Amino acid sequence: MNRPIRTKELHTDNRQEYARGFLRRADEYVREMVRAGTLSDGEFGGSAISIMAGFAWREVTAALATAEKDKKYRSSPQHRRFFKVVTRAFEQWPENHDWNPIDENHLRKLLLIQAGYFEARDAEIPWPENKDDMARYAIAFGAAYDELKRWAGQYGEIRHNKNYTKLRAYRAKSMNFKTMDHRTACKVMSDVEALIEQVMGCTTDQLLKEEAA
Predict the structure, then answer these.
(1) Closest listed residue to residue 83, CA positions, set 179, 183, 188, 158
(2) What are 64-114's pLDDT values in tens digits?
(3) How many other β-carbons are positioned within 10 Å of the β-carbon of residue 92?
(4) List of residues 6+ apart from 147 with CB closer than 8 A
(5) What sections of 37-46 are H helices per DSSP?
(6) Residues 13-54 pLDDT 10s
(7) Which residues touch 2 (CB under 8 Å, ≥6 apart)?
(8) Residue among 188, 190, 181, 193 at smallest CA distance from 74
(9) I need a surface site. Which of 47, 84, 110, 157 has the fewest CB within 10 A?
(10) Residues near 171 by Cβ (< 8 Å), separated by ≥ 6?
(11) Maximum Cα–Cα distance for the chain, whole Å?
């Protein structure tokens, strides 16, 4: 009773246990109020506790209903299908394409970045005002690049502006079930598959059928 219930904290699989615990805390809270004199047990009789418990029960029920309504579960078959699509695309990736992924994980990361599912970090290296500062500029540029490369990881991507005074590193976000919700997964997977279809010239279903054949 010290703070409001947050919907994200409710686990519908344990809703009965949670509701019982909430009612127990409500009961204890009212009893403390009676002992402290904030509520008069004589005035409210035994109904004070039941009234507060009733309010608590309705709050829990409403919050649980909202949580259940909003809850979307990630699909394991959908997840596995997506990775198979990327693997199949890597096996047939055009040699003349601008991207030259070293493996299917590299291709997946590139596709995720292209689909907008990424994190970014910037670095700025001012252009030297005179030629004498070029050596210091080159050292600063190399240091900034190396730092961004460490942050972006093996499959990250680093781009620069035309003047070589700004760097931006991109790394794909994680697709694990804890960090990627169902709605985001559906959108990102759909966007990535659209990119694959554009490059391959066929649908992702056709790619999978060719693998099965």
Answers:
(1) 188
(2) 665 555 556 678 889 999 999 999 999 999 999 999 999 999 999 999 999
(3) 13
(4) 123
(5) 41-44
(6) 455 566 666 667 766 766 777 677 665 555 444 555 555 556
(7) none
(8) 181
(9) 47
(10) 109, 113, 118, 119, 151, 152, 153, 155, 156, 157
(11) 90
CB 171 within 8 A of CB 156: yes
What DSSP designation does 126 have?
P
Cβ pair 120, 172 in contact under 8 A = no
CA dist., res. 8 & res. 3, Å (int): 14
Instruction: Name residues whose C-beta falls within 8 Å of residue 34's C-beta, 6 or more positions apart in sequence.
Output: 40, 41, 48
Tokens coding 174 = 């994680």
C-alpha dihedral, 105 to 108 to 114 to 119, nearest 10°: -60
Directed axis angle between helix 182-200 and helix 204-212, to 10°?
80
In the block, tokens 């009676």 appear at: 34
